[in-house]
Structure prediction request, 225 residues.
Amino acid sequence: RKEVEQDPGPFNVPEGATVAFNCTYSNSASQSFFWYRQDCRKEPKLLMSVYSSGNEDGRFTAQLNRASQYISLLIRDSKLSDSATYLCVVNNPSGTYKYIFGTGTRLKVLA
Amino acid sequence: DTGVSQDPRHKITKRGQNVTFRCDPISEHNRLYWYRQTLGQGPEFLTYFQNEAQLEKSRLLSDRFSAERPKGSFSTLEIQRTEQGDSAMYLCASSLGVAEETQYFGPGTRLLVL
Prediction:
């Protein structure tokens, strides 16, 4: 079983739609969680950290469910510019702070 | 630009040659990481430095790979006797350390081994 699992997609959605991605992780001791966005042939860029209480940044909402070991990302009112790969990231709990990435979920927002 | 920088951005080499990549982290960032990313996959951890000390190496990092961070600032990643399977994007990231663990990535070095 992979340490971090995501549905690779692609998710093709019309502009204005709401789309949600889930990600599951296997290590219950994981401490920190993030969503990164990666455009084609570019580096990953931090979209948002994920906190236990859930957090929102504009059209983006992230939630963490420790009991079920999954995190989610909700994008409301999708824009064409949201088209990208969304990487789920878990911070290794062993103290080295390395990131463990999912394979990423591809999103394409259609006009 | 005060972000993470990497050089070169692209490298094409023949199988068996040695290559070296450089990463300059954000200044004052104590931690530096190397990752490798192949098509359709998320980045995979290779190695990590806290200042000049290399504290962890992935089993992905065979004996052909070596990384250094001699003065706790920039880092180099060398691949000896390259193989076609080494073709990938090599990403460097840095983080401030202490309580802040958000990692910031450089633009990557895209390696193609022919």
User: Anything to note?
Assistant: Chain B has a mean pLDDT of 93. The radius of gyration of chain B is 13 Å. Chain B touches chain A at residues 31, 33, 35, 40-45, 48, 55-56, 91, 93, 95, 101-108, 110 (CB under 8 Å).
